[in-house]
Amino acid sequence: MTLLAIDWSSVAVKTGQFILSFSILVVLHEMGHFFPAKWFKCRVEKFYLFFNPGISLWKKKIGETEYGLGWVPFGGYVKISGMVDESMDKEQLKKPAEPWEFRSKKAWQRLIIMIGGVVVNIVLAIALFIMIMYVWGEEYLPAKNLTYGIHADTLATKIGLQDGDKIVSIGGKPVDNIETVEAEIILSEAKQLQVDRNGQSVTIPIPNGLVKQLNKNKLQGFIDVRFPVIFDSVAQSATFTQGKVERGDKLIAFNNKPVQFFHEFDAEKSKLKNVDVPMKLLRGTDTVDVKVKVNEKSALGIYFRTPGTLFGTTVKTYTLAQSFPVGFNKCFETLDRYVTGLKQLFTGKVNASDSLGSVISIGNTFPSLWDWQKFWTLTAIFSIILAFMNILPIPALDGGHALFTLVEMVSGRKPSDKFMEYAQMVGMVLLLGLMAYALGLDFWRLFK
């Protein structure tokens, strides 16, 4: 096993975005418990961002509540007097219930306190999607714009796709955004693709194992946009030993091998390190020979025109009024996709070892360059996922407490403190075990 080379600047940017996003989600979620508890006259002993076993990085007591910052970045908590929670404060439960304790409140009040965090996360997700639609709209590369079709990578060629194919539909549903093809195949579990191959309509059956393989590969190794290599700009780090490139030059040969499309150039470039490489360029009607140094990271220090620049993207803009229904739809489409993914996990259509991830996987979803649109989009996605996960009827989660409270409201019988204590312990063991498993998977992926 070998550890991959790490770009620490990229790690720092990803980590910064993750911590900021996670902090926003946790603080607002806990506020969803904090304020209803205060409204119903419960004593809130602690409000913490991140967990603080043993020590706190910062703490300050204001009134009856200690506010603090923990050192274990796996969540946060609000400690409400008289409530069986992750603090497992058994001593307090041995005493008679006080009027300011959670356990002395009416069932409907306790239910509101428990689901407050989930409600806040749902509202936050909707608000963020509305803001994103209003501020940035939606920009994407339409499948119909691909002049040269797609490049079929290893997985795609195995099922019968070919370079130059233009994907028309997935399971009978027309493809608009080329960037969503892989995700659409996984989530729709479609049985076939329809492609335009040299003007002819061709049906490509999708084998059962493709969904599992795509999920294992993290949507990699299937298709890419096929586009020519047109130079756009040159970084200061670029080193030329013969000639220069100019904006608009088209690459037609690299390392003495003919090149028509970017994937051909990229495959050859990735094999080279610390060497001078000859390139043949088309500049207008003239052919130009250039030599450039490929560095230790197989990079040239040259930027190329993107598919979006070459073929044109579609931008959908929305007024504030229009962004509300679109934002609502985006939120619940995201939830639907997440639930579909969970169903595939539990039915064995995807492997848990390929799908589960810890904070490392979550942090890695953020881009290596700070991008506010992507930051808020990912924050909105994680907010609705956090809401769904917390409402699951599992002891130690908000949904578990809410379920016991609903049973009490229907039956008229309140679960004993001892029962709630044991249920909390079982739930905590399950959750900690799952977190440890997910963290182990991430470390295995890093080192394998």
From TrEMBL:
The chain crosses the membrane at residues 18-37, 111-136, 375-398, 419-439. It is an enzyme of class 3 (hydrolase). It holds the Pfam family PDZ_6. Its cofactor is Zn(2+). Keywords: Hydrolase, Membrane, Metal-binding, Metalloprotease, Protease, Transmembrane, Transmembrane helix, Zinc. Residues 150-186 form the PDZ domain. One of its GO terms (biological process) is proteolysis. It is found in: Membrane. One of its GO terms (cellular component) is membrane. It is a multi-pass membrane protein. Residues 18-433 form the Peptidase M50 domain. The keyword Protease applies. Its EC number is 3.4.24.-. InterPro entries: PDZ_6, PDZ_sf, Pept_M50_Zn, Peptidase_M50. GO terms for molecular function: metal ion binding; metalloendopeptidase activity. Belongs to the peptidase M50B family. PANTHER family: MEMBRANE METALLOPROTEASE ARASP2, CHLOROPLASTIC-RELATED, REGULATOR OF SIGMA-E PROTEASE RSEP. This is Zinc metalloprotease. It comes from Segetibacter aerophilus.
